[in-house]
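Shipment paperwork, digital attachment
Item: protein structure file
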Amino acid sequence: MKHAKTVGLLLIIPIGLYAQIPEDINSGDYLLTCWKSVEKIEGGVTLSAKESLQVGYFWGHVLGVSDTLFDEDLVYYPEGATHHQIILVVGKYLDDHPELLHERASRLIRRALIKTFPKRKQ
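Attachment content:
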């Protein structure tokens, strides 16, 4: 019986966290919200469960788009470039371009990375 209660609780927690996610998680607006959670953790602030999900979403979305751009030879990352640096570049782009937050998150990530890390000229 104890195990059934534990399993039931484990099933309820993700559902409750999922319910906190807004409808349009693909918007630039939501990406900015997630970036603010990343900034909090960078500053050493303890995050809520919702903010922790936002950090994971931000990292996953940014690095997924980054890998695609790299695989398609649309960006060039200099030797020593890190995932953390890529995350910071996208966050700064969001902060610097609030007028674009109505656009899709993946489009904003793409713009930030292509602008900052243009592909090498052959």
